[in-house]
Amino acid sequence: MAKTLLHISKMIDHSLLHPALSxxxxxxxxxxxxxxxxxxxxxxxxxxxxAKEILSGTSVAVCTVVGFxxxxxxxxxxxxxxxxxxxxxxxxxxxxxxxxxVLSRDWDYVSREIKMINDTAxxxxxxxxxxxxxxxxxxxxxxxxxxxxNQHRVAFVKTSTGYCFVRxxxxxxxxxxxxxxxxxxxxxxxxxxxxxxxAGGIRTLDDLLRFKALGATRIGTSATETIIEEAKRRxxx
Length: 237
Description:
The protein has helices at residues 5-9, 23-36, 48-55, 75-88, 99-103, 107-123, 139-152, 180-189, 205-213, 224-233; strands at 12-16, 40-43, 61-66, 92-96, 127-131, 156-158, 165-167, 173-175, 195-199, 218-221. By secondary structure, it is an alpha/beta fold. The chain has one domain: Aldolase class I (TIM Barrel), CATH 3.20.20. Helix 9 (205-213) links the parallel strand 9 and strand 10 (218-221).
């Protein structure tokens, strides 16, 4: 396949989720996403209307997050967040599962929540990406989540929020983002119709290409400019 810049840019969800981003930062991020013609801007919920306005007339989708980053909101709150975000212009919803319920193996709760949010998004013309936050989970739990997502035919499964810090026995915290083994597992366990998004610590073109080779079709990153400019230097046109 020819190396085209569009193949790279349309894998990227440009992330605008850091808590310290100002309104000016969010505007600049949307303009950058428009410049590079990425797949989507993943923006904080209160800025969905802003993103929709800036990206109007482009092929860049407006994505936002629900239950982010810890997944601890009630299902009903997540459903309302989803509905409101879609009504304000989001066409993609990245939502975090209830991690505590996954660890508790309360699969009825987890399955019901995924179904309700997915159904709400579809009703509003949007798609859902289910964030597992794999840094907290065993492979057994990841596999079970994949199978639940298969049952409900979600659009994407996603590795991480990009904000996962796992407490160690000595009290320190270690960052956990996208890892190759998780993308392999998710691609293997999900039906072909479900795509895989890798997010968390993806900063270079080589990172993107590595995860692409493992089956990821979407990448969450704030390093969009770095990645695409490197692709240009390597001959992508």
